[in-house]
Amino acid sequence: MKPIIAPSILSADFAYLAKDLEMLNRSEADWVHIDVMDGVFVPNISFGFPVLKYVAKISKKPLDVHLMIVQPERFIHEVKALGAHTMNVHFEACPHLHRVVQQIREAGMQPAVTLNPATPVAMLKDIIQDVYMVLLMSVNPGFGGQKFIEHTVEKVRELRALIDSTGSKALIEVDGGVNLETGARLIAAGADALVAGSAVFAAPDPEGMIHSLKEL
C-alpha cells in the first residue's frame, strides 16, 4: 500500500492560506495535518479554532488534528465540530490517557496518541490496542523546519514490533523533518503515514512533491 501523506499547514503561507488549501484539495494528499500549539506544552503558539473553522470549510481532505497543548480533553467537542477525522493528543499531556482516548472515540473521531522524541515506545504497551494511530515526533515539537532526529527510524521499528506482537491495528505516523530521503527510510522501517511541512510547501512544485512522497 502507498503511504498516507498528510501535509502540515503549519508550513503553509498564511497570507494565501485558501490558495494552499485548494492546492492540497487538488493534490494526492490524503489528510491535512493541523498542529495546534498553546505556548505552554510547547514553546510556540500556532492558531486556534477561528482559523481551524476556516480550514475545515475549505478543505476537502480529512483533518488530522494534532493538539500540542495541555489538557487537550477540554477541546474534544470543538475538534469534533470541525468534522475532524483524527484527534491526536500527546502521551505527555494526558495523565489519564485511556479516559481521553475513550472520550475521543465516543465523540465520533479516531483517537491518536503522540510521543515526543524522548518518550519510549514501551510507554504505549497498555494503550496500543485502543488507539487508531500513534504519531512519533521526529523533532522536538513546537517549530517547523527542524532537523530530523535519526533515532526515529529505530523507534518506528520498535513501534511496529509492539503493534505486531499485541495484535493492534494502529497506524504509525511520523512528523518532523520528513522529506524524500527520510520518508523512504521511515516507510521501510514500518511507518504508514508521513506528515510533511517544509518539504511540501517550500518545494518549487508542492503537488509534485506530494506525488513523490506518495510513491515512496
Record keyword descriptors for this entry.
single chain, 216 residues, alpha/beta, eight-stranded parallel beta sheet, 35% helix
Poorly predicted spans: none
Q: What would you call the quaternary organization?
A: single chain
Order of helices and strands: EHEHEHEHEEHEHEHH
Task: Summarize model confidence as the mean pLDDT.
Answer: 96
**Distance between the ends:** 10 Å
Given the structure, what is the number of helices?
8
> What level of helicity do the residues show?
25-40%
Strand content: 15-25%
Count the beta strands.
8
Structural class, from secondary structure content?
A: alpha/beta
What does it look like?
- This protein is α/β, with parallel strands linked by helices and 216 residues long.
- It is built from 8 helices and 8 strands.
- The chain has helices spanning 17-26, 49-58, 76-81, 97-106, 151-166, 180-189, 198-201, 206-214, and strands spanning 4-7, 32-37, 63-68, 86-90, 110-115, 133-137, 171-175, 193-196.
- It has an 8-stranded parallel sheet with strand order 1-8-7-6-5-4-3-2.
- The protein starts with a strand and ends with a helix.
- The mean pLDDT is 96.
